[in-house]
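ok so dumb question maybe but i'm new to this and my supervisor (M.) told me to 'just get the structure for Methionine ABC transporter ATP-binding protein' and walked off. so i did the thing. is this what she meant?? sequence i used:
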Amino acid sequence: MITVSDLRKTYRQGTRTITALDGVSLTVPRGSIHGVIGHSGAGKSTLVRCLTLLDRPTSGSVTIDGRELTAVKDSEIRTARRRIGMVFQHANLMDSRTAAQNVAHPLELVKTPTADISSTVARLLDLVGLTGFADAYPSQLSGGQKQRVGIARALASDPDVLLCDEPTSALDPTTTDDILDLIHNLTDTLGLTVLIITHEMNVVKRICDSVSLLEDGRVVEHGRLQDVAARLDGKLSRALLPLPAHSPGGLPALELLLAGDIASGPVLSDLGRRFDLSINVLAGSVENLADSRFGRLRIEVSELAPVDEMLQYLQSQGVAAKVA
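this is what came out, is it supposed to look like this??
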């Protein structure tokens, strides 16, 4: 549904050329939720602007459902943008308009008949859980309710794609989970394809099917959530399954990554019995990601432990392992 190919964006700053996006490529299948994660300055904001054609990329392409948006004429940009619903970090509602009037605004811009606007707005407010709030002004709504109005407004043009730019970073944890659950449910209900720009790993963990890590304008890791989580040395895997920093002691330490049924099995007890040794768990992280269970462990064994043989055995059992 969404294909970004070798997207580049450069800016001139005096005599310097600033490269904001450096060959970004990613694919988001229809009906899935993809997260793009990165720290401030990674290029996330520039990517959003290029995806919505607020900025023309220097080169590369953005294709949605087979249509290359980056090839449309300037006169057709507004029509092309209607295929993408935008949800912002702050809902960006018009304070002088009620919730219903905010949702109606995109429909008014394209001169939708009044009767159709009324029925569409009522349906969308009900869909985002705001039945009874049609006449409320933004000042009368909580942060989560404002974001729900923003989501309803983004859906008013019946888009194929929902692009969410840091949609929960201004919300408290409980409200964040509620909004993420809403986005997930809307994806299933409406058959949307969703791309979420975020710097919060919790967003990726909770609802994303796949993820890209953006650094210095480049995608350095990309894949299905269960695939990137299963990479022992991957940056995303370490962020998804964090362990505290390791201070080497006098005894050998191993780091293990377990996935699927193995993560729920007696790996450590089997290892201890096989090599007749005691195992001390120094740290661990366990998560359910994309309907799969993952665990990352750091263990300590005796100085006489046959570390090489233990690593070979663990790998034969489907456990990724290395010396910590």
